[in-house]
Structures are given as structure tokens and as C-alpha cells.
Prior knowledge:
Blueprint: E1 6-10, E2 15-20, E3 23-24, E4 33-38, E5 41-47, E6 56-62, E7 66-72, H1 80-91, E8 103-114, E9 117-126, E10 129-139, E11 145-152, E12 162-163, E13 168-170, E14 173-180, E15 184-185
Antiparallel strand pairs: 1-5, 1-15, 2-4, 2-14, 3-13, 4-7, 5-6, 6-8, 8-9, 9-10, 10-11, 11-14, 12-13
Amino acid sequence: MTLTDGTYRLGPSAARLLIRTGRAGLGRRAGHDLMIEATRWSGEAVVVAGDPDRSSVNVVVEAGSLEVREGTGGLKALTDADRAEIKRTLGDKLLLHTAEHPTITFRSTRITGTPNSFEITGDLTIKGRTHPATVHGKGNGDGLLRGWATITQSTWGIKPYTAFLGALRLADEVRVEFEVARLEPVNRPE
């Protein structure tokens, strides 16, 4: 995919937004490493290829749209009941407080690099708390844009999930990944 100047719409129709969790603690063998997908989100990217500092990215994720797509590791396979319990735990008072904070937002403040290798620094707001985050990205020869950011949950007031009296817990750091298969131009009247 060649990045050309323009304004582009982002969302699940042409891209994926994933969260990957890890395990910690003495009981980590019992739990699962999760891949969670945001199923309802939207965004806009303004691309100025020759002057990346004039480019921008804004994304809004519906916090209640996070769905467990897979769980690896663990002593037993992840069941549908496990997935439902994880979804409930994500949205309730334990983690994201989706009733009080229905969206997660990212607004870029600086973009550097080239379409083949770039960094997007911006403000990430989760649970009403805003902190800086840096996204690392690459335009690959396979036609995709891919990238990632490491987020420390406790920075945003999220206490990583624990079980078995703390012997099993999610690692504080999670990896947020994106993959854009195609850019959808925004048609704006002139």
C-alpha cells in the first residue's frame, strides 16, 4: 500500500485493533495469554507524506466492544463461558468501568518517520485519564500497515486482573496492535 496525501477513515471494515495480554505470578501456567479485539471503533488519519509532522491520527474505541478472540497457554482450553466472564470483567467495576467511561481515545500530537517506518506520539485516554503513548509502525511490502504500542495498565488506573489470591495475574503491560489492510478515503465536499 502506498501512502498518498489525503484524509482516510479507519475502522473494523478495513483494519483490526488488538490487545494482547500476558500472565504473571506463580500461578501463571493456569491462565491464558489473551488476544482481545476491539469490534466497534473509528478513526481518521490525515496523511501528509512529505511532511509527517502535519499528519495526524485520531481513534475512538467503544470500551464495551472488546471481545476475546483467542486464549493460548493455560492448563485447559479457553471456553465460551471463560470468554463471557472475561468480557464481563473487562467492562465492570474491576477494569474499564465502561458505564462511566464508554470510550477510549487516542489523539496524535506528533508523527515522525516515513511511511515505511514511523512513530506516532499522542494522548491516550482510558477511564478518564490521559497520558502520552507512542505507537511504532511500519508499512510492509505485503501491502499492510502494522504497528504496536506497549501500555502499562496501572498508569491509567487499571488494576491488572488477579485470581487465586494473587498467584495468577495479568501482566501490567499489554501490547496494543493494529493492522490496516486498506485506507478508505474520506470524501469531503470542496
